[in-house]
Amino acid sequence: MKDKSGIAVQKHRWTFTTTIVPRVVGLLTDAGTTTTDGGELPLGSGLKLDFNTPMAAGTVSVLQNSSPASLTWSTDGKEAAFSTKGITAGPLAISIGPGAKDRLQHALGGDWKLQLTLTFTITEHTIPLKAPAIVQI
């Protein structure tokens, strides 16, 4: 066997082993929208933390303002759902506690955290009128 320049090249067999490093893919709202650092959420929002590989549920702790969140896991182990119910309006720091591992016992890569703001949203229901309204006081 020769290379492009005509130099003889010996045959070799190469093998590679790839290891997936567990990481957070994203944090989604109940509506399926992605949250970003510095974003806002309505009070009582449900959130889903997505991972790139199945996680060992017992090793993952999600902290909301330093308090552990109650997690509900998907059957494939790649999604952990939790709620912000009971947390007051204002800053919300979400992070993953130390020791998180995937099902193959690989440690979660990096120090994942996100800063959000929980907001109280006022919604008004109005009815459009066909003509100007007269308000009498």
Strand content: 25-35%
Lateral strand order in the biggest sheet: 2-9-8-4-5
Order of helices and strands: EEEEEEEEE
What does the radius of gyration come to?
Answer: 25 Å
Number of strands: 9
Largest sheet: 5 strands, mixed
Report the principal-axis shape: elongated
Mean pLDDT: 91
Report the span from N to C terminus.
98 Å
Helical stretch count? 0
State the helicity in percent bands. Answer: under 10%
Unreliably modeled segments: none
Pairing-aware structural class of the strands and helices?
mainly beta
What report would you give on this structure?
This protein has 137 residues and is mainly β. It has strands spanning 24-29, 40-42, 46-51, 62-64, 67-68, 72-73, 79-83, 90-96, 113-119.
Summarize the structure.
The protein is mainly beta and 137 residues long. It has strands at residues 24-29, 40-42, 46-51, 62-64, 67-68, 72-73, 79-83, 90-96, 113-119.
